[in-house]
């Protein structure tokens, strides 16, 4: 089903329900007004007959009154004291042909009317059985139709929710797959570069440095593997040194950013005497790396500076800050950047920032905010 089709179906059903309701209520109003006018005309006809001195005018008024009553559409059957039909009007089969009072269908329909209302009993003339007028019959049907329509709308709403939930999960898993490739790509590319350097016959000093960096890449691969093991599990809370995390992330990216063309400088600022914070070191480091990698990506092709800082915040809080001097985030997009699936990159999946925000706020009880700046983008993680 095309995207937006369920919503269009639900909107059509809602409009149909409202249109039907408005149409029917207006028709009921018209019928009630006609009935009121008819009753008033009957009332006037009775008073006219009572005031007319012409012989037989009273009888004629009663005949006109009886005729007017039958014209209102109420099904009626009059019986004598023995239960034999003596008159009838507005029965379902009256519209097809002329039906006499002796017709078996008339006698059978007495039971139908008796089930709807108790008869009007007159000790002199007999009983009058009556049913519901057309407007009342319609009022019984419309609520049932509305209930069925409401049930259809409910089912359609549940279908939309389920469909959107499945689509969101698919985007999440696709994004997580892309994020895993993104996380693994940097150390794997770095390892490939060091291997080429060693194959070209590097000097002993360069070879030793390459071994150190390769060991760092392997450690990062191990940390990435452990990160994805934590998804869906309870965080492991322990005391964390924020300065150590910032230093480790800074050193890692300093050795892997461009240093010739479009140079990117990664620096760190660590305040002294920072308090320890409680949390999951693996997940918190992941969140900071996401912010740092995004800052480096924002400077791709132009160069610039990225500063990763751990400083004191208000009320004994610790602030972990990642700032760059790149193009920044447009004002109209700042409210959406943490939404899952939203990305300003053509090849982005919109998982990184939403994942970092979830790690900070749900797993560590902190806040991840985009700080307004005149240039570049500055993200702060605030932990108590």
In short:
The chain is α+β, with helices and mostly antiparallel strands and 384 residues long. It has helices at 5-51, 57-70, 104-116, 134-199, 204-230, 242-254, 281-298, 352-364, and strands at residues 76-79, 85-89, 120-122, 126-130, 238-240, 264-270, 277-279, 304-312, 318-324, 367-371, 377-383.
Can you describe this structure?
- Strand 8 and strand 9 form a beta hairpin.
- It is built from 8 helices and 11 strands.
- By secondary structure, it is α+β, with helices and mostly antiparallel strands.
- Among the domains are: 75-130, no CATH class; 238-383, 2-Layer Sandwich (Heat Shock Protein 90).
- The two termini are 47 Å apart.
- Helix 4 packs antiparallel against helix 5 (204-230) and helix 7 (281-298) packs antiparallel against helix 8.
- A 5-stranded mixed β-sheet has the order 6-8-9-11-10. The chain has a 4-stranded antiparallel β-sheet with strand order 2-1-4-3. A two-stranded antiparallel sheet has the order 5-7.
SSE arrangement:
Elements: H1 5-51, H2 57-70, E1 76-79, E2 85-89, H3 104-116, E3 120-122, E4 126-130, H4 134-199, H5 204-230, E5 238-240, H6 242-254, E6 264-270, E7 277-279, H7 281-298, E8 304-312, E9 318-324, H8 352-364, E10 367-371, E11 377-383
Parallel strand pairs: 6-8
Antiparallel strand pairs: 1-2, 1-4, 3-4, 5-7, 8-9, 9-11, 10-11
């Amino acid at each position: 089903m095309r995207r937006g089709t369920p919503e269009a179906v639900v909107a059509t059903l809602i409009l149909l329900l409202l249109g039907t309701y408005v149409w029917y209520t207006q028709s009921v109003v018209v019928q009630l007004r006609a009935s009121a006018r008819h009753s008033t005309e009957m009332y006037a006809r009775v008073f006219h007959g009572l005031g007319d001195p012409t012989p037989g005018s009273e009888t004629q008024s009663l005949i006109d009154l009886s005729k007017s009553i039958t014209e209102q559409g109420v099904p009626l059957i009059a019986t004598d004291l023995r239960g034999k039909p003596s008159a009838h009007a507005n029965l379902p089969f009256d519209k097809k042909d002329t039906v006499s009072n002796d017709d078996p269908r008339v006698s059978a329909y007495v039971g139908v009317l008796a089930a709807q209302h108790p008869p009007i009993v007159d000790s002199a003339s007999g009983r009058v059985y009556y049913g519901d007028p057309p407007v009342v019959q319609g009022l019984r049907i419309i609520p049932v139709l509305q209930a069925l329509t409401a049930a259809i709308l409910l089912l359609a709403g549940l279908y939309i929710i389920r469909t959107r939930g499945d689509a969101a999960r698919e985007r999440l898993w696709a994004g997580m797959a892309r994020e895993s490739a993104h996380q693994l790509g940097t150390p794997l590319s770095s390892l490939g570069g060091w291997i080429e350097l060693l194959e070209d016959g590097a000097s002993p000093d360069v070879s030793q440095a390459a071994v150190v960096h390769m060991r760092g890449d392997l450690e990062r691969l191990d940390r990435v593997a452990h990160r994805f093991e934590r998804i869906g599990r309870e965080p492991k809370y322990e005391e964390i040194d924020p300065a150590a995390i910032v230093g480790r992330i800074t050193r890692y990216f300093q050795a892997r950013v461009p240093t010739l063309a479009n140079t990117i400088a990664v620096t760190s600022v660590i305040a002294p005497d920072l308090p320890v914070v409680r949390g999951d070191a693996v997940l918190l480091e992941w969140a900071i790396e996401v912010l740092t990698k995004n800052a480096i990506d924002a400077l791709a092709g132009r160069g610039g500076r990225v500063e990763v800082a751990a400083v004191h915040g208000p009320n004994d809080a610790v602030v972990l800050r990642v700032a760059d001097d790149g193009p920044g985030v447009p004002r109209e997009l700042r409210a959406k950047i943490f939404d899952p699936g939203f990305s300003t990159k053509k090849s982005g999946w919109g998982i990184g920032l939403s994942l970092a925000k979830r790690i900070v706020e749900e797993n560590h009880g902190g806040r991840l905010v985009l700080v307004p700046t005149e240039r570049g983008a500055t993200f702060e993680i605030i932990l108590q």
